[in-house]
Amino acid sequence: EIVLTQSPGTLSLSPGERATLSCRASQSVSSSYLVWYQQKPGQAPRLLIYGASSRATGIPDRFSGSGSGTDFTLTISRLEPEDFAVYYCQLYGSSPLLTFGGGTKVEIK
Amino acid sequence: EVQLVESGGGLVQPGGSLRLSCAASGFTVGSNYMSWVRQAPGKGLEWVSILYSGGSTYYADSVKGRFTISRDNSKNTLSLQMNTLGAEDTAVYYCAGAAIRSRFDYWGQGTLVTVSS
Q: Of A88, B26, B28, B106, which residue is most buried, by most CB within 10 angstroms?
């Protein structure tokens, strides 16, 4: 079973700062199936990044994804007020078929 | 515009059953990949089940044998039959749709299931 570990659990930053979120897989995975979502309180998740580095439709270019093997990163270059949320990585195709990381909360410092 | 609207949540006693539905518009349930994802109060996301466009179904170990995912192409809806519910099944249940099975572009607003006596 592949486990996705996200760190840090909480990231306290100010608007305008850079956010770097990590997602580590317990074994090497295909970057094609690594996805990132954003979730705001009381809302459904929103697809941000797929294939580890491709932005979904309508996602601003301040969001970028990178990584391969076991280590993946979501970077928000300059935090906007609307970016404070919880971010989840997700992997498809392992066991279980779909798995989510535990999430990273980006909060206002 | 794609819309997924869940319904059927509510309060159910331990050991009981509940059937969730997800009505889609602007998106064809039978031609895409559909999944249920849940989120316990204050917790992270947990994948529950997926139904492939070809009809194959898969479940998380935590619900295997108790939950059944299905679709009605004529009504363009997705369903989740949940049996033998326990407190650990208490969560908001989201319906999610994908043209590419590895990533979910579309999500409903969620429906809350509470299992309690």
A: A88
Residue burial B85-103, b: 16+ Cβ < 10 Å; e: rest: beeebbbbbbbbbbeebbb
Which residues make beta-bridge pairs with A47?
A37
Out of A46, A98, A102, whose CB is closest to B44?
Answer: A102
Per-residue pLDDT of chain A (109 residues; tens, 9 = 90+): 899 999 999 999 999 999 999 999 999 999 999 999 999 999 999 999 999 999 999 999 999 999 999 999 999 999 999 999 999 999 998 778 999 999 999 999 9
For residue A60, CA distances in Å to A102, B30, B106, B109 come to 24, 31, 18, 23
Long-range contacts of A64-68 (CB under 8 A, 24+ apart): A65/A34, A65/A36, A67/A23, A67/A31, A67/A34, A68/A31
- Nearest 5 degrees, angle CA B65-CA B71-CA B73? 160
Is A44–B46 a contact, with Cβ atoms under 8 angstroms apart?
A: no
Scanning every residue of chain A, which has its alpha carbon at the shortest distance from the alpha carbon of B111? Answer: A44
Whether residue B102 and residue A32 make contact (CB cut-off 8 A), yes or no, is yes
Largest CA distance in chain A: 38
B-contacting residues of A 89-108, CB under 8 Å? 90, 92-93, 96-103
